[in-house]
Amino acid sequence: GVDSAGAWKLPAHARFERALAQWAERPLLEFALAESEFATARSLEAELVDECTRFEALCRNATGWLRLEAGELDLAKDAFRSMEKLLPGGMGLELPGRLRAGTRGLAEVAMEHVRRDELESAAKLYAELHKYQRDEVEWAARAGATYRDAAERSTLLALDCRLAAEGRVTDPRRLAALRERASIPIKAEGAALATEFRLAADERSKKARKWFETSRACFLDALRLTPNDARLMNDAALIAIYHLGTDLDDAESLLKRSITVAQKTLAATTQDELARNASTQALGDAHEYLGLLYLERKNDAAKAVQFFETALKIGPGPRPAISESYLPRCRELLRPRN
To answer: How far apart are CA 113 and CA 110, in angstroms?
Structure first.
């Protein structure tokens, strides 16, 4: 009945508030006991189900944050995810100014994975958040950026493994470090070692391509939520041009849209300096990536030069990839042949 349920609910509320006040003491047990008391209260009175279930989810939320603060990432993830298992939409619960949402906690776990250089784990978490809250541009953009970074890392590892397979890595310390990074058995030597490195290179290349594809899809999802974000247009286009070699017409259209958006934004008089710099950067990037498209994919070095030179004029800072690599290559391609 109501009286017996209240006998559990009121102490549960008091215990929950006390645990929040004693946060520095890491009151994991208090939150667990409060959750149990809320669960007992709702089992005794149907009218308390909604209220008590919400507080049970908040107890799990608090547990997740405490685990995160202690660096216990797996336990933190379990706690935040358990909010959703208990209550659909529960991971979004928060107490403003006192306890941040479980979704934000899961994002903080992802950020910690990034700090630990565990990019794949971070990317998967951002993708999970993106799937959970499809209308949150932050998760889509972060998933795109982190999958891209993980893919670039995997691509570099694949290149190193190919060099090792060809016998072009001779320094023992570098070779040992590469073995560890590629998870190659210690006993493999000679021809067997070369085979292991080739297999690792193939595996890492396939993984990188898959992650680049996922990254581009996430950036495009983010663009559907913020269709006038020039930076996101550039990010999605560059992956198609430089890493995948696919959807090139779409990529060119995105970059031209980016230029239009950035120019309109710069023409506005209400921008602060930070916003103007960001728009200028996006405008320059779009021209640089168009140059890359015409150099690498369309075999039109003359047109690439036009875009590269425009990008250098726009700035806002130096662009060494253009001045030291792309333009010299273009000029070599355009040099008259005897």
So the answer is: 5
